[in-house]
Amino acid sequence: MTKLEAKNIVKHFDHNGNQVLALDGINLKVDEGDFVCIVGPSGCGKSTFLNIIAGLEKPNSGEVLLNGKAISTPGPDRTMVFQEGALFPWLKVIDNVEFGLKMAGIPKDERAQISQRYLDMMQLTKFANSYTYQLSTGMKQRVAIARALVMDPEILLMDEPFAALDAQTRDLLLVELQLIWERTKKTILFVTHSIAESVILGNRVVVFKNRPSKIKKEFVINYRRPRLAEDQNLIKYQQDILAELRTEVKAQIKGEFEE
Amino acid sequence: MKGKITAKRIAFYAGIVVVWQIVFSLNIWTENIFPSPIQVVEDLAYGAADGSLFFGIATSMWRLIVGLGISIAAGITLGIFMARIESVNQTIGSLVLGLQSIPSVAWVPMAFLWFGLSDAGIIFVTVASSMFAVTINTYSGMKNVPPSYIAAARNMGVSEAQLITNVMLPAAFPHLISGFRQGWAFAWRGVIGAEIIFSFLGLGFLLNVGRELNDISQVIAIMLVIMIIGILIDGFIFKKIERKVMSRWGLA
Lengths: 259, 252
Prior knowledge:
The structure holds 2 protein chains of 2 kinds. Chain A is α/β, with parallel strands linked by helices. In chain A, 37% of the residues lie in helices and 25% in strands. Chain A has 2 domains: 2-79 and 154-258, P-loop containing nucleotide triphosphate hydrolases (Rossmann fold); 87-152, no CATH class. Chain B has helices at 2-25, 37-49, 52-84, 86-100, 108-115, 119-143, 147-155, 160-171, 173-198, 202-212, 216-248.
């Protein structure tokens, strides 16, 4: 069943008075329970695309359907994990995790029950009463994932959530995220510039072409899970995608020289 | 380290008192122009004994607290509207900057005409001198909320009211605290200035009495009290809160 469908999404940006075409008709379907990665060079508009799905930005044309219904505003049915975490420093970890539930008017006892489950899942129970400045970047991203999951979203959106992490922490979280996906059966749309990340995580890897962005190609990664970062068999998939992207990166560098 | 700084300070103030006493002993000026430190302390003791000093402190503090309370409530509200509605910022915002530049005592004639010789008049001056500092800091605090906080909150489905009270105001809290600190400093100047001119109870009134009685030691004594209250409130309330907030918000 199709969970999410993006239909012909077009987005312009105003750049020094010039209209720049950022997204040139993106079509994407994500099935229920699927794990889809979008990979592309930096600045290719993949984050903009994710923001449009989240309802944080509006497309110039095209529409986003969730369970067949068009969406236009942000909502807790599409929670996002941001690259920088975007946790609230004035709240304790547990209050950060419960934030969305509290705003939705869920009673305290029920909130505590729900948050406990995700604090456990993300191994945060010991840190429930810490403030965010006391946490490492990796711990912060665990909190951000828990905060997004407590809302029980229809689809979990992730915008380069591991980009700022050190390699060891990232490898650990890459495995954990797969386990969480298997446990919660959530539909996940994950944006990254890292090909390695995309083949470890994705059932499908969608390659974005440079600005104006289009979907260039899609790869299906049929490989057992949990996939580990050091698994040599994944390199073959990486190479295929890299070959596809290399022309894009070259085109981008060339473009930047000409600007 | 901290003990060293304290020792340095004690030595410094003790030095001032010693130099003061030496200059007094040189008899360059008469006693009614240049009193000795002992005379000033005696004056304080006298004021404390007959209760007039404490009554003066209590009166001024009460006006300060009421005035600053109104300033903070009204200043934050106005700041929120300026930050969230661009037309309000473009119109009222420019007026706020203008009003902020009016020295506190310049509000006194208006306060006198509107409220007469009353607490209300002095509180009005206090509010007028301190409110706009709170407004300006609230505004800039809300404008400087990291966009990712707002995106995250909207992503979780908050309403506009929830966004302001549960995200933007707490996120702006470090700015709000600086606003309160500035507001309090302006309010304190406003209270004392207004009391001097109104000459209606409070520490400012006692200063004025000192002038009318040609009692320089009372004048210096009251000035010392005003300064010490200032140091205590700033150091023990605002600096402490500010330090705590800065570390929790990850800014220190």
